[in-house]
Amino acid sequence: MKNHSQTNHNKSGFTLIELLVVIAIIAILAAILFPVFAQAREKARQISCISNLKQIGLAFIMYTQDYDETFPNVATSSADDGGCAPKLSWYNAGGGWTTLVNSYIKASGIYRCPSAESPFWLTGGPEGWCGTPDQNAVNLLKQTAPQGSTYFYRKANAGGAWFAGHAITEADFSLPTQNYLVVEYAAWHRDRKTTLYNTPVDVNKLDLNTVFVDGHAKQVKGKQWRVNSPLKDMGWGFPEPKGADLDWFLSSDSYTACPRCNMASPGEGDGHDID
């Protein structure tokens, strides 16, 4: 006589083929869904970065309201503290600018994009400081942005008193919605290896979140930057005579004296960065 309990037991469970089929289905679903999840996560990070920039833009607006509509300026002449634009690169690209507006923010995480692999300044030291570094300022940066800063403040603004002969003011901008103020220094959301400091850099990949003078923030794609069109790439020493970086203000195409040229002031040549 057959043992019914044994027979029922033998009929339960999965065969090896069935298990392999299930595993294969799970693997296929994972291959399909993981990129979708990654894209959704990166989109959320991008939104966070734009939110950071909006708050930074608001801080600059409050700063200008307190200082007669004048933007932060840190270099008045090439002779300051030994010459070669002392402090300027540290303030505009090394994170130093955060110490100037932090009283309007007071949240260190704002200065770092969640997608960034590392801050621009890596050691908290006086990177970009030509001349005698102010250790108090360097220490203040460590306190203000302990995670680093992944955005930089436009050099033409930071050194306006030197380059243009006067600090840049809100009144200098006839097109405040088309001139950027603070920008990411790398295309974190498209190609993390594409930065403004590549030599050269593929401008087609240079999609950067930025905040404009009027306070609105958005992503500007590579060729939407006027300085990048019709360039294929850019970088230090690039032979394009009319502009190869985002440090300066770019004159209008209709500016007779020098169309689409680098300018020290946005008021000269009706400069703007995007159309």
3D architecture notes:
This protein is an alpha+beta fold and 275 residues long. It contains seven helices and eight strands. The chain has helices spanning 4-11, 16-66, 88-92, 98-101, 135-144, 155-158, 160-163, and strands spanning 151-153, 180-184, 201-202, 208-212, 217-220, 233-234, 249-250, 262-263. The chain has a four-stranded antiparallel β-sheet with strand order 1-2-4-5. The longest helix has 51 residues, at 16-66. The radius of gyration is 26 Å and the shape is elongated. Mean pLDDT is 81; it is low at 122-126 and 236-243.
List the helices and strands and how they pair.
Elements: H1 4-11, H2 16-66, H3 88-92, H4 98-101, H5 135-144, E1 151-153, H6 155-158, H7 160-163, E2 180-184, E3 201-202, E4 208-212, E5 217-220, E6 233-234, E7 249-250, E8 262-263
Antiparallel strand pairs: 1-2, 2-4, 3-6, 4-5, 7-8
Entry keywords:
single chain, 275 residues, alpha+beta, 4-stranded antiparallel beta sheet, two-stranded antiparallel ribbon, 7 helices
